[in-house]
Amino acid sequence: MAEVVREIRPWRRILPAAAMALAAALVAVAALLLLKLNDANADDANRQSALQVARQVAVDLTTVSEDTAQGDVNRLMDVATGSFKDQFAQQADVFRKVVRQASVTSKGTVAEAGVSSVNGDTVTVLAAVSATVQNADAPDGEQRQYRMKMQLQHDGDRWLVSDLEFVP
Predict the structure, then answer these.
(1) CA angle, corner 92, sides to 89 and 97, nearest 5?
(2) How far apart are CA 55 and CA 115, in angstroms?
(3) Is pLDDT larger for residue 25 or for residue 126?
(4) Which of 90, 91, 107, 156 has the most CB atoms around it within 10 Å of its CB?
């Protein structure tokens, strides 16, 4: 019977140590899962922030008038960077001139927009935009539909549009 007692005693020492090791492993796994969840929440917040900027840029690009042409250009230049900024800066004078000469008034709304890809600090957004455009040729206004693909770059604490193209 003494031999049986010796066989049971090692288990009494091993079980608490195993339970402690298991508890430590569970705490470590829970901490890793919490970190992953926090990262996922931060990624989602970044996506939503970029999407919000893209939606506003789509509206700003399709909401213009001869009375606000300079302010419309300034608003777009404020959120532009990279090739989009370069291209828009080169066309800004022509843009203002056409808007004023043709007496353009346009009011745009975003029908749908979504993030199509994320690559580090770069987000690509697709947007479907509807605009009512009035000008000298269409004084009663006409509906126009646009689809845009925008690339946004995270710069400091804000998102800037680095590329924008109208897609068929």
Answers:
(1) 165
(2) 11
(3) 126
(4) 107
Closest alpha carbon to 134 in 73, 62, 61: 62
Q: How far apart are CA 131 and CA 145, in angstroms?
A: 6
Q: Report how far apart, in Å, the C-alpha atoms of 137 and of each of 17, 107, 110, 133, 134 are.
A: 85, 16, 24, 10, 8
Taking the CA atoms of 110, 111, 117 and 118 in sequence, report the sign of the dihedral they define: positive
- Tally of residues, the chain: 168
Specify the pTM. 0.74
Interior angle at CA 80, CA 151 and CA 61, nearest 5: 85
Q: Is the pLDDT of residue 12 over 70?
A: no
Alpha helices in the chain (DSSP H): 2-62, 69-78, 82-101
- Distance between CA 59 and CA 43 in Å, rounded? 24
